[in-house]
Design brief:
It comes from Oryzias javanicus. The protein is α+β, with helices and mostly antiparallel strands. It is built from 6 helices and 20 strands. It folds into 4 domains: about 15-115, Sandwich (Immunoglobulin-like), CATH 2.60.40.10; about 125-230, Immunoglobulin-like, CATH 2.60.40.10; about 230-260; about 280-325 and about 340-350, no CATH class. It has helices at about 1-20, 230-265, 280-285, 300-305, 305-325, 355-360, and strands spanning about 30-35, 40-45, 55-60, 65, 80, 90-100, 105, 110-115, 125-130, 135-140, 140-145, 155, 165-170, 175-185, 190-195, 200-210, 215, 225, 295, 345. Helix content is about 25%, strand content about 30%. It is elongated. Strands 3, 4, 6, 7 and 8 form a 5-stranded antiparallel sheet that branches. Strands 13, 14, 16, 17 and 18 form a 5-stranded antiparallel sheet that branches. The longest helix has about 35 residues, at about 230-265.
Length: about 350
């Protein structure tokens, strides 16, 4: 009886050893790595043959073992099973199979994949000051090797509803701080803080953790800071800016108006001098006369003078000059004068008689 029991114990140990090490004594070291809900299985089989193949299977609580389609009969020693798991509230299992031949496969000890394996990247925060409140928006990291849409990555909040803790503190007074923890059920978490002192710099940091296991938490985000300003303090710069813009607009409008007015006003042109009016000429005794109305009277005593010929020559030239003066140059403007129907007489005084000595000469 004792021998039978010992034999049964040895067989059980051998069976367990084969399950763990393989039928040929092969031992493989397996490990699961997880970052932002990704799942990567790594293994190392130091004594395995170079031409040996591997397969990976997964199991979710309540379901049978299933092959990972892209990790069947592979020669590499890693397998990303991230797309397989989507429900992290249930138990998830992974196991590695070693193929010594097409008909011989040895499965290593299964590994569980749960919150104890989770590690997370830190989130990012943005802050804004509005209506005397500090608003903080928290954005979560994307899960590696997952795509929830064609546009971008898949944030971890698409897969879990984490607890998000936001802390706001005075940059120059560490005792002045507030903290708020919310259950995030949206892709982005937003919180607001009030009762902060004006004129101080406040910074915000945030981190998140797995809903049912607070130890699986992310590091804190990088701080983002903002200076608190009262609404009245913000109103004065805005009014000053508005006044400056209005003044600039009015200045430009006035400049355009003056330029337009200057263009619409014609420049004075130099006007030719007007000819003297007939009234002015009459007042000066210089009434214009038609050359046809001019009669010449000669002193009879001077006609027989030897100088009469010379005088006649001069007289003819004088009459032509008078006619040219009255009628003007044919190319120039002609002034139409009216003598009033009266005849004008031009009297030429007698020329002085030269002495006989001069005449003889």
């Amino acid at each position: 009886m004792r021998t039978h029991a010992l034999t049964w114990t040895l067989e059980l140990c051998v069976t367990i050893s084969l399950l763990i090490r393989g039928s040929d004594g092969l031992a493989c070291n397996t490990a699961v790595e997880s970052l932002d809900l990704s799942c990567l299985l790594r293994w190392d089989c130091p004594h395995a043959s170079p031409n040996i193949s591997y397969s990976v299977q997964t199991k979710t609580q309540g379901d049978p073992w299933q092959d990972v389609p892209w990790c069947v009969w592979i020669s590499t020693q890693t397998c990303d099973v991230s797309p397989v798991f989507s429900n992290f509230e249930l138990y998830n299992m992974i196991r590695l199979g070693v193929h010594f031949s097409p008909s011989s496969t040895t499965w290593m000890k299964p590994l569980k994949f749960d919150y104890s394996d989770f590690t997370f990247s830190s989130p990012s925060v943005s802050v804004s000051w509005k209506h005397e409140r500090l608003a903080v928006k928290v954005q979560f990291p994307c899960s590696a090797n997952r795509r929830c849409s064609e546009e971008g990555c898949c944030p971890v909040t698409k897969l879990i509803d984490p607890w998000t803790t936001v802390t706001v503190y005075n940059q120059h007074n560490s005792s002045d701080q507030q903290s708020l923890t919310v259950w995030t059920q949206e892709l982005v978490s937003s919180v607001e803080f009030s009762g902060l002192f004006w004129g101080h710099n406040y910074c915000a940091v945030a981190n998140f953790s797995f809903p049912t296991f607070s130890m699986a938490a992310s590091p804190k985000s990088a701080p983002r800071c903002v200076k608190t300003i009262s609404d009245a303090g913000m109103l004065l710069p805005m009014m000053s800016l508005g006044i400056c813009l209005i003044s600039l607009f009015l200045f430009l409008l006035l400049t355009l108006f003056l330029q337009k007015r200057r263009r619409s006003t014609p420049e004075p042109e130099s006007q030719p001098k007007n000819h003297a009016s007939s009234h002015d000429l009459l007042s000066l005794g210089l009434a214009p006369t038609d050359p046809c109305d001019i009669h010449l009277e000669f002193d009879q005593s001077s006609i027989n003078s030897p100088s009469s010929l010379h005088l006649g020559q001069n007289l003819s030239l004088t009459i032509e000059d008078v006619r040219d003066t009255v009628h003007g140059d044919p190319g120039a403007d002609v002034a139409d004068w009216d003598s009033g129907g009266r005849e004008s007489t031009l009297t030429i005084p007698p020329a002085s008689h030269p002495s006989e000595e001069t005449w003889d000469k």
